[in-house]
Write a structure and sequence with these properties.
- Keywords: Endonuclease, Hydrolase, Nuclease.
- GO terms for molecular function: endonuclease activity; nucleic acid binding; zinc ion binding.
- With about 325 residues, the chain is mainly alpha-helical.
- It folds into 3 domains: about 90 residues, no CATH class; about 110 residues, no CATH class; about 100 residues.
- Helix 5 crosses helix 9.
- The longest helix is centred in the middle third of the chain and has 17 residues.
Amino acid sequence: MTFADVTRQAILSAIKEYDASGGEQFLDQHGYRRARNYFLVHNGREYDSKAIVGVAHGYLPGRSPLRADEFSGGLATVVPLLHDRGFEIREIGANQNPSWLEAELVLVCEQLVLNNWKPFRAGDSRRDDLSRLLQALPLHPLEDRGRTFRSPDSVKRKMDNIATSHPDYEGTRTRGGKLDMEVLHAFLERPEEMRLEAEAIRRGVESGELVELRPIPDLDEMDAAEEGRILLRRHLARERNPKLRKQKIRSVLRRHGCLECEVCDFDFERVYGERGASYAECHHVTPLHVSGTVRTTLDDLAILCANCHRMIHRGTTWLTPPELRELVVQRRS
């Protein structure tokens, strides 16, 4: 029997002993040093991962705790075992990696769908391809990326977390995060829309358009859940094309003599006078995951006030200007 036979219950027993003894005494008693890279997280507390697994071995029937020199800890051994037993692992220090964002999870879910909601096995070249694609996304600064940032092993763990959260999965479930569940349910409820979104992200990376994407001004004011939506960043960049925006505003003024929001009828000049003259925001009516990279015409843009523009982009499913206008009219009546 080896450390691979350690059960979840045995690990919980070792955690209980750790809590009762205190971390330093627990480590000294069993001959372990403090963990350097990986900590087990349970009920909001952190535990030395290798020490917990080694001591947990002693809670198996007829077995003794393992000494530190009897097995290797780390990413290739202890971490997969703890993940498999349903525990969360935190990577620390120089190896700590940023949290997964929506665009990354969309690409992971896309591959799970194509593989019948089964994670890629070790040695599958598709896992390496997905790892490289995720590393190419311009979502995380290089200085925030640890040594194992979106490595094939980390991709496998994320696929495991999402796949075992699928409603039809019958085995032992691992612990996926809240955003994992949201993206999973989006694929189950709106499969074609999410497939197109994944395709648009992939196409943008392969063309180099997303790789060169700059941060969008005011994006930090968006809801926290929207910060990882790479298509939103690209969509806003397209909407904020200064030349196209000016052309649209001139066209509407020539045709109607004023700039009213197409949703709520707000007119900046009517409210703010000269300061608000010739001002409005422009919204591209076709999401990028539907249109892909195409030439934008003036007919593709809608005139909106800032509030209505924000409401259209809020949430995971965008409303069209007519849909939002219907909500406004209903509220007014």
